[in-house]
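EI: anyone free to look at a 275-residue chain?
SC: sure, send it
EI:
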Amino acid sequence: MQLIDTHVHLNFEVFQEDLEALQDRWREAGVSRLVHSCVEPEEFEGIKALADRFPELSLAVGLHPLEAQKWKPETANQIRSLASSEERVVAIGEMGLDFYKADNYQQQKAVARAQLEIAQQLDLPVIIHCRDAATPLAELLQEFWQTNGAVRGVMHCWGGNPEETQQFLDVGFYISFSGIVTFKNAKQIQASAEMVPSDRLLIETDCPFLAPVPRRGKRNEPSYVRYVAESLALQKNMNLEALAAQTSENACRLFGIDPPDSSSTDSNWLASLSS
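SC: here you go
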């Protein structure tokens, strides 16, 4: 069984002492591909160096909505140049809107729209962060579709209710669930997971954040995406292997990455995680 973790931040300081051990554990858990997100373009050289060390990594480049104030006239060209010059870049992001932690609404919208334009120009999907901004973001996407045409992408670490989820399914987006979906009180997120068609479903850790049950409260890591898959399989009444295969196929389709190596073995990952 093979899994794809579609959203990681391995460049964060909390991982720097044990990256090789992390790789051993994610391989033992069946994780054969990872998509490394980007908070701001200045991170990109370090992220690219990680991909040199770990060939499983595909890359994204973009500006997070909580960093929107860092947008400069040259930022669009910087993101476009980085994305087009590196074949391992498979997405623009993470980008989007966050009205929970910041109130620079118009600035965030302008920066999001600019990155949608870059993604469309380069024929790349977007990785979207959305917090307390589902309706404004859906309106922005619908407006962009009407004026510029379609753009594809994923709502990462999705935390919305079913009605909000439907807005993004309606514009063709994939929905990615993180460890939050394993939390006992995450009822609306679990309801959203149940309604997402299997061919639009992705899984992620968003590590080092939001470790799933039974690792909640610990540093999150790519191997734990298996817990997300197990929880979703139960919620959607799917066989775990079928869910893993479907979400991996979806990730390959969205990001244009090669399918996992089916010859890889599924090791005794639980024993390794408890050691």
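EI: The first strand starts at residue 3 and ends at 8.
SC: 👍
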